[in-house]
Amino acid sequence: MSSQKCTFCEEQNNLTREHIPPKNLFFKPKPNNLITVPSCRTCNLGFQKDEEYFRIAISGICGDSVKFQGLLLQNVNKQLAHQPKLATTIQGNLQQVEIKTKILYGWRSDDPRIGRIFQKIIRGLHFHERRTLLPQNQGMSWNIIDEDFIEKMGPVQFLIGAPVHDIGNGIFQYKVRFSKTGNSLWLLKFYDTVEFFAITLSSGF
After folding, report:
1. Is the pTM of this model over 0.70?
2. pLDDT digits (tens, 9 = 90+) for 190-203
3. Domain ranges in the chain?
4. Which residues, at least 6 apart from 174, have a Cβ–Cβ distance to it below 8 Å?
5. CA separation for the pair 10, 4 (Å, rounded)
């Protein structure tokens, strides 16, 4: 692995493997098709607290998902009982959104801890798909797909017909389209319930 670089910071030393998406989103037994990418130990350790935050935060919008219940029973309730301050912080970063005519609670798009995990997922999936690193200066944005977003964001339509990549039988799914100029559109779906749109952009699509 010495010729490789960290998927996230491009460091070449002390490399290990990082799961994409975070493996704590999956309950036991873990699926046999988990994605891993090269990562330095600094990035690997640096993601851990944000991954715990992400896992609990997703419970605010996927809590009624049948697929989510296994994770909820195994880990999330136990973690919240031991970290009440974390639960309070997450609650303060939720906002009400309408998803397919149903009111749920979604994340504020400016929550930096959630943003770091989305960036990790997109960078990791980009490497997995293309075997190249996403440039550090590549612009990236993400948003929950609610009723308002669907009406305003035409690029989602470009993902219609793209193949679905499934990790863990519906626990995590994604679609992607790459442009000739290196930009990309992503659809991320968690627990067969809530979808997010992400885009990486360096020039015209």
Report:
1. yes
2. 988 888 889 999 85
3. 15-201
4. 125, 164, 165, 186, 187, 188, 189
5. 8
